[in-house]
Specification:
With 220 residues, this protein is of the alpha+beta class. The chain folds into two domains: 59 residues; 143 residues, Jelly Rolls (Sandwich), CATH 2.60.120. 31% of the residues lie in helices and 32% in strands. Strands 3, 4, 6, 7, 8, 9 and 11 form a seven-stranded mixed β-sheet that branches. Strands 1, 2, 5, 10 and 12 form a five-stranded antiparallel β-sheet that branches. β7 and β8 form a beta hairpin. The protein is elongated.
């Protein structure tokens, strides 16, 4: 067997492995698109606990429209946050520009979420001390989106912060939160990955056929 045929076989096997991975990945994405969305088209996380002894729990900023991991949010059309209060007090959920939120919470004791580990669930906070008392969050006009126990937001460019508070602006915030997103990228990503898998499978077939075909005997 010539070196060229050996190279074709090895390349064909590698292409076949890549094709299997792409086909499996594309199938999983299309399966998720068809079965993991709710009736409104959202993909949701499970409910997890967020809590703080101050007046609010807020996210670190989501910097949309710039390079980096947060750039992924540019491809998410809508974000929905739902909360289940740990007490009888109704929750306030809001999303606002970072500058506006920082002015509102300036001098107010609150927690900033700095890191989240999914398995096992663990949240890291940065405690922001303060002696001030915030006004009721629902009375503020700077929110891009707000709601009682649920907020839905059409993603936009900028630096944004999600805020969890008691609706009456009282101290001691505790709730289970679920974050959901709606995006057409899952469907298109699944289709693209499947097409790439089919192309890789065709290349694998060609290379293996080239490497394994029998040589015809030459003329006597």
């Amino acid at each position: 067997m010539t070196a060229g045929r050996i190279l074709a076989i090895v390349s064909g096997v590698l292409a076949a492995l890549i094709a299997l991975g792409l086909l499996a990945g594309g199938g999983v994405l299309l399966w998720a698109y068809g079965t993991k969305r709710d009736d409104n088209g959202f993909y949701s996380t499970r409910y997890e606990r967020f809590a703080g002894s101050g007046y609010a729990v807020r996210s670190d900023d989501l910097d949309l429209g710039t390079d980096g991991p947060d750039r992924l949010f540019d491809h998410v059309g809508t974000i929905r946050i739902r909360g289940r209060a740990a007490t009888s007090r109704p929750l306030f959920l809001g999303i606002g520009r970072e500058d506006d939120v920082e002015r509102y919470l300036n001098g107010v004791e609150h927690e900033v979420v700095t890191d989240v580990d999914l398995d096992p669930w663990q949240v890291s906070y940065r405690h922001e001390p303060g002696s001030g008392t915030p006004r009721r969050p629902g009375s503020q006009t700077f929110w891009a989106a707000r709601g009682r126990n649920t907020v839905t937001w059409e993603v936009d460019d900028g630096r944004w912060v999600a805020v969890l508070m008691n609706a009456d602006a009282s101290r001691g915030v505790a709730a289970e939160i679920s974050v959901a997103a709606k995006s057409g990228l899952v469907l298109w990503a699944g289709i693209i990955v499947l097409v790439l898998g089919v192309l890789a499978a065709a290349l694998a077939f060609y290379l293996l056929r080239l490497g394994l075909r029998s040589r015809r005997p030459g003329p006597p």
